[in-house]
């Protein structure tokens, strides 16, 4: 098949959507398909990308970019490709362009709904009194786009049920995004690389590390973690909280750690290259998160693949992922958050058991399984399309 993937974000940008599109492209190519990515320009992008076509774009809403909605030269090029399938990964510029191409050239169109936009309206609306209007607008944009495609793909049942609430009427299929499990499983905590990294970050040999990897932004609810850890870190001098990532809330949260008196034990180490991120998971003893905005939470899967037990705030995206006392613990408030961390860090045997449970629980999230599921959807939709238009 010839497949067109349309996304406003793509490697080398570091986020769940960019990673998902990259993994899908690479694995579909391994299956023998021709895959073309249409995305935004990025100053960090390589000049030697294979079948990646970038439209002029500008920075928008923090780290994202907004591309042109139409590009005549690319229209002619897309026509010449004779694509079999178009798969959009955004409801905005490149998604609108991809949908237009599908309609213009009568190409079957699938769409993956990656982001719950009503959780991100604070980037656009600075006045809380207008937030209700912004959230309602986000719901309508999401529903209108999803209702304009042939099939919708979502990563979890949480998102599927949300789209039902939005009145999406198109067929919705749950396909969890996969990851390259080997990228995380093949790193050893005791390797020289990891030990040198700990030394560079001034993490002592006997220190235990609570780890967060992801965007440092309001919707990730990191402030709740810091407030909950105030007393715990004060009572446990050998515990460090390491945050890997960057974002608009970093300065505010660094200031909060000073106010709470935990700045010496809280390390904000910034964004790290995606190709190296597997090493950073090996810094941790427990992966922690209080985010309520995830559609799937790929960092949870990556942490589990890295043999890290998880302590995360209850959220439907964790259904089937986080299993209490098997690969971690769900928490609801400060008391059970701290108790869950204590259970793991105070017992080496429990931590080892949960680490083994973590590894065993992620096998179904392999990149290969993910790409095979998407490939089957392409084939099914293409068969329907051929029958509908009497194409041989």
Instruction: Quote the beta fraction.
Output: 15-25%
Question: How many beta-strand elements?
Answer: 15
Let me know the largest β-sheet: 7 strands, parallel
Measured distance between first and last alpha carbons = 15 Å
Overall, the morphology is elongated
Summing up helix and strand content along with how strands pair, one would put the structural category as alpha/beta
Q: Any low-confidence stretches, pLDDT <50, length ≥5?
A: none
Task: List the total number of helices.
Answer: 14
What is the mean predicted local confidence, pLDDT? 91
What percent of the residues sit in helical stretches (DSSP H or I)? 40-55%
Q: How would you spell out the order of helices and strands? A: EHEEEEHEHEHEHEHHEHEHEHEHEEHHH
If strands are numbered along the chain, what order do they take across the biggest sheet?
3-2-1-6-7-8-9
Radius of gyration: 22 Å
Can you tell me about this structure?
By secondary structure, the protein is α/β, with parallel strands linked by helices. Helix content is 41%, strand content 17%. It has helices spanning 16-30, 72-81, 93-105, 131-146, 157-165, 181-185, 192-200, 222-235, 250-260, 277-281, 298-305, 334-345, 348-360, 367-388; strands at 2-6, 34-40, 52-55, 57-60, 64-67, 85-88, 109-112, 151-154, 172-174, 208-213, 239-244, 266-270, 286-289, 310-313, 328-331. Strands 3-2-1-6-7-8-9 form a 7-stranded parallel beta sheet, with helices on both faces. Strand 10, helix 8 and strand 11 (239-244) form a beta-alpha-beta unit. The mean pLDDT is 91.
């Amino acid at each position: 098949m010839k497949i067109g993937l349309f996304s406003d974000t793509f490697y080398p940008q570091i986020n769940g959507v960019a990673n998902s599109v990259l993994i899908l492209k690479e694995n579909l190519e391994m299956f023998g398909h021709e895959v073309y990515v249409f995305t935004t320009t990025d100053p960090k992008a390589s000049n030697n990308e294979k079948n990646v076509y970038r439209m002029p774009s500008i920075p928008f809403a923090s780290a994202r970019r907004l591309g042109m909605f139409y590009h005549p030269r690319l229209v002619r090029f897309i026509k010449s490709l004779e694509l079999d399938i178009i798969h959009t990964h955004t409801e905005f510029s490149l998604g609108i362009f991809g949908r237009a191409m599908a309609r213009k050239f009568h190409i079957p169109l699938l769409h993956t709904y990656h982001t719950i936009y009503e959780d991100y309206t604070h980037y656009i609306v600075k006045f809380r009194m207008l937030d209700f209007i912004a959230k309602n607008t986000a719901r309508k944009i999401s529903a209108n786009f999803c209702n304009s495609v042939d099939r919708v793909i979502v990563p979890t049942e949480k998102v599927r049920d949300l789209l039902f609430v939005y009145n999406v009427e198109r067929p919705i299929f749950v396909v969890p995004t996969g990851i390259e499990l080997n990228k995380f499983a093949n790193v050893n905590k005791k390797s020289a690389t990891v030990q040198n990294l700990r030394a560079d970050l001034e993490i002592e040999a006997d220190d235990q590390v609570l780890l967060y990897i992801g965007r440092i932004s309001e919707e990730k609810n990191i402030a709740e973690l810091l407030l909950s850890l105030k007393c715990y870190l004060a009572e446990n001098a050998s515990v460090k909280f390491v945050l890997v990532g960057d974002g608009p809330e970093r300065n505010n949260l660094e200031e909060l750690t000073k106010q709470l008196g935990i700045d010496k034990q809280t390390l904000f180490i910034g964004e790290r290259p995606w190709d190296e991120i597997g090493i950073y998971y090996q810094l941790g003893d427990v992966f922690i998160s209080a985010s309520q905005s995830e559609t799937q939470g790929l960092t949870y899967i990556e942490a589990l693949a890295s043999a890290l037990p998880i302590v995360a705030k209850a959220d439907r995206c964790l259904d089937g992922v986080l299993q209490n006392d098997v690969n971690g613990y769900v928490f609801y408030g400060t008391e059970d958050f701290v108790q869950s961390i204590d259970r793991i860090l105070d017992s080496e045997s429990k931590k080892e058991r949960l680490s083994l449970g973590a590894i065993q629980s992620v096998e179904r999230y392999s990149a290969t399984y993910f790409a095979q599921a998407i490939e089957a959807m392409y084939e099914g939709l293409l068969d329907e399309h051929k029958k509908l238009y009497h194409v041989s």
